[in-house]
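Sat 14:20. Reprocessing the chain from the morning session after the first attempt stalled halfway. Input below, unchanged.
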Amino acid sequence: MSDVNPILSGSAQSIAAYQDAIEQSTQAVVEWLKQPEMYQGKTVEQLRERINLNFTSQGLGNQAAIERAVEYFLKDSLLVHHAQCVAHLHCPSLVISQAAEVLINATNQSMDSWDQSPSATIIEIKLIEWLREQVGFPAGDAGVFTSGGTQSNLMGLMLARDAFFARQGHSIQQDGLTGDLSKIKVFCSESAHFSVQKNMALMGLGYRSVTQVKTDAFSRMDLADLKDKLAQARADGEQVMAIVATAGTTDAGAIDPLADIAALAAEHQIWMHVDAAWGGALLLSEKYRHFLNGLELADSVTLDFHKQFFQTISCGAFLLKDARHYELMRYQAAYLNSDFDEEHGVPNLVSKSLQTTRRFDALKLWMGLEALGKKQYAEIIDNGVTLARDVAEFVKTQPHLELVMEPQLASVLFRFRPHSDDLAFVALLNQRIGDVLLASGSANVGVTEADGITCLKLTLLNPTVNLADVKILLASVKETAEQLLKA
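Finished this time. Tokens:
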């Protein structure tokens, strides 16, 4: 072992090594942040050729290992804070979130049991209580921080499934799946996140268990089609275990009619889960909070904080309206959440989570809320929604651009429209525009489909970006398109 103990501890040697490593890494990040290019523009093949592992028998030491990470990782990473990086729900992070990561990583608390994370456990519980209040759920602490939307959606669907079988006197936890599983269905819109299908397959019910409901011109779940499909399911002898509504679809940012869907779910005694991974940010909004009316009627809710809450990846939460449903997944291990602990009120969060070992990601949200306050947080969330509307109005004035859909959250769907009626050609052109911009390292614009139309997408999460920045990007889109057309 080297002269300096590589393990973080309270020794003078370890503390000195920690300070040196953090200082070296921090300085490298500071220089990286100053880069003018969004991306260095290397292809998949170039990165495969460039990156190699160097695991020697004696090791390189901290300094050399950091230098190699800077050279082969940091320098070739996307600048997600760059004004032209707008392809995905991939946010720049709060400075305070970066500070939180230092504390999270150094302490390395594990959120499965109180004796591994005493103060962290209480902070997470209090944050869950606060989040429930923002949603409009009854007072309580039924919920848990998660890795993000896919895991939170899995928890919602799993508990919906288990509650569905429990009403029939059957325990999934004890006895597993039973009966004619082909008759069990989950409803979601055509624009819902793919994790609905992914999670239903993971739970053994398969893609075929997912019935997609049509959407309207704004990618919102169509209520008439939902009613028709519920009636058809009943006529076919099918049983609907859950309806998944979306508050913020990935591309359009569409929010389904939550209150109306909740009324139908209640009428048919169906669990309603709301995937508010993106739109849940509007809980803090001063201008657009009403878009989420009806969220409080859900049985469970997904929230993400590494989207428009501007936290570092990963940071999400799952909220459960009725705490008694947690009994459906409870498992006790003597070394983590014993009967003795339960009797004495010791909060071991493993009982609420699909994970055992889990990071203290809740610290990032807590520190963000305390550092910014609700008003400033609301302003930077609202900025993206308002900017998207301003960008849409500008796009309408450009003869070479076509707005594909009016914005609803902080995304703008549009396409470059040459003088051509060949729709396949127009689709390919827009795909190539996105590819060329990324390859050049100048911009990262999303390419997606809306109602069968291949289009470009601007996801305007970054609160430092303004309309002038977007106009520069749109000019690059036009210039790239014209070069492609000439070629």
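The radius of gyration is 24 Å.
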